[in-house]
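User: Continuing from earlier, I have the next pair ready.

Assistant: Great, send them over.

User: Here they are, in order.

Assistant: Folding the first of the pair now:
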Amino acid sequence: MTDPNASYPNPQQYPSPQPAGPLSPDDDKLWASLCHFGNILSVLAPLIIWLVLKDRGVRVLHEGREAVNWGINVAGFMFACVVLTAFVGWIPIFGWIVSGLLWLAMFAVGVLNLVFAIIGGVKVSNGGAYLYPVNIRWIK
């Protein structure tokens, strides 16, 4: 059992945290490429990287924004397809056909997401920039 009267360390003993400096060019390139590769998992990976490091690197700022926008579009499409499948799946014949087509569309978008994320990550890690095709840019 701990002593409720135990004293806490003096806050003056510890130095205050310093703000993080800018990323080195190699780290900037690494984290920017990880934003694209993170889209393979979900939109959360590039979103977290972008929110944490966007003020520390120009490449992370731009490439992360592009990756997050793509992830938002993919996640929104998948969510809309699941909702539509849940509604029309109950309709005999027609609903089943539409549900099957929606599942195929989700599979196709998942494959495109995998391919575009790998292409984007490789391009950025080689020093280039990548813009996803047919990307609605929600974050400017």
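And the other member of the pair:
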Amino acid sequence: MGHTLLAHSLLVPEIALHLATEITPVWQASEAWLAQNDIEPPFWAFAWPGGQLLARHILDNPALVAGRRVLDFAAGCGIAAIACARAGAASVEAAEIDPLAVAAIALNADANGVDVTATGADLVGADACWDLILCGDVCYENPMTQHILPWLRRCARTAEVWIADPGRAYLPRDGLDILLTRDIPTTMELEDRTVRRTTLYRVRPS
């Protein structure tokens, strides 16, 4: 966490997050340690477009989550989970298999004074015990997409499932209903452009 500071994304200034002040140093500082410990790159150190769109939509429409049991799946920095807690969700769980991300989510929740249960458990395949499952920017690799989409579609039989995606190549072309689309500010260090058009989808059940 030494290369992060409490900061705010442009789209969701209400939420403070431990974010990388510069992208290259935190990535380089992590690489050797990551290789030695078989840990993922520090995706948790950035507020990705999908998470920002989820958080903004929830904060603008708190009735969508108020009183509901929410899972923020592949939660990254936890921005969507924190938004749900602020919006009055009955319970909020944020799942990440990266232990550094789990630690970051706990710190970020504490910084915002909200109760979020951060877990490192691999929940893919688990029975849906939530009312709403949020997924921000999860279709960035084909193996990841093929691993999680069948499970999310099964979960959609009993829970509402949302995916917020900024145009990643592996997003499926069917089984999704568009809820809204918005341009999200980003950086050329993180993406290949300064704005990402990001869409929030509802997943249809299989």
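Worth noting for the second one:
The longest helix spans residues 23-37. Strands lie at 4-7, 17-20, 69-73, 91-95, 117-119, 132-136, 160-165, 176-185, 195-203.
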